């Protein structure tokens, strides 16, 4: 009969095979602990419940395991120079390292993996876990995704976890303290300049869209 530790290791290995190699050993150990917490939740609840219920119970198990986490973390993106606040929401970020996306669907679709990879790239993190609890055996609902992006820095930057926040399971941290785009003042439109009819006939108004410029006629 397998011990709990052996089962956790087996499921973690299965998740690693379906993901991408390349994560550091410390991250591998952390993902094993997260998977162990997910196994405990699935063992007690089984499939067929709402995603929010699995999230609540997983947060409890993570806290019992002594792991710090943030919940429902807002992730902004930059698009053509515009900062879009709360464009994405990550379910869980554990120890400021591993992004956990929780599902309770009939199956895991490729778009779910793409979604998690987008979160990793936008938040500049390396490893994510996609956990679908709506399966008879949890290892069939696990995907481990590794961000292998080695290009220049991405527009969206992650914020360090503030230890003073206490890491409450209900923690909800905005990814930016900047004012949203909608609150930014737009530049006032310039009033059109009406040419003085009594001015010199050798001067005329330029038709440019910017500030009108007076120039001499040829």
List the keywords:
five-stranded mixed β-sheet; 218 residues; two-stranded antiparallel sheet
Give an account of the 3D structure.
By secondary structure, this protein is α+β, with helices and mostly antiparallel strands. It has one domain (4-182). It has helices spanning 4-18, 25-45, 51-64, 110-123; strands at residues 69-79, 82-94, 98-103, 127-132, 142-146, 203-205, 214-216. It has a five-stranded mixed sheet, sandwiched between helices. A two-stranded antiparallel ribbon has the order 6-7. Helix 2 (25-45) crosses helix 3. It starts with a helix and ends with a strand.
Quaternary: single chain
**How far apart are the termini?**
99 Å
Mean pLDDT: 73
Name the overall outline: globular
Order of strands, main sheet, comes to 1-2-3-4-5
How would you summarize what this structure contains?
The protein has helices at residues 4-18, 25-45, 51-64, 110-123, and strands at residues 69-79, 82-94, 98-103, 127-132, 142-146, 203-205, 214-216. By secondary structure, the protein is of the alpha+beta class. It has one domain.
């Amino acid at each position: 009969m397998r011990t709990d530790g052996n089962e956790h290791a087996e499921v973690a290995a299965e998740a690693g095979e379906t993901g991408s190699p390349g994560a550091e050993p410390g991250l591998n150990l952390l993902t094993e602990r997260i998977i162990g917490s997910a196994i405990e939740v699935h063992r007690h609840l089984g499939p067929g419940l709402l995603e929010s219920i699995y999230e609540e119970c997983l947060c409890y198990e993570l806290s019992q395991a002594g792991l710090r986490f943030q919940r429902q973390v807002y992730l902004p993106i930059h698009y053509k120079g515009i900062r879009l606040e709360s464009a994405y929401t990550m379910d869980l970020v554990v120890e400021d390292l591993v992004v956990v996306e929780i599902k309770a669907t009939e199956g895991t679709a490729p778009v779910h993996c793409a979604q998690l990879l987008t979160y990793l790239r936008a938040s500049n993190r390396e490893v994510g876990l996609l956990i679908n609890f709506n399966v008879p055996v949890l290892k069939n609902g696990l995907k481990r995704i590794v961000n292998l992006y080695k290009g220049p820095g991405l527009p969206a930057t992650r914020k360090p976890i503030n230890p003073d926040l206490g890491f409450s399971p209900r923690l909800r941290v905005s990814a930016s303290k900047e004012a949203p785009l909608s609150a930014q003042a737009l530049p006032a439109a310039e009033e059109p300049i009406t040419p003085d009819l009594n001015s010199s006939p050798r001067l005329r108004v330029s038709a440019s869209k910017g500030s009108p410029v007076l120039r001499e006629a040829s």
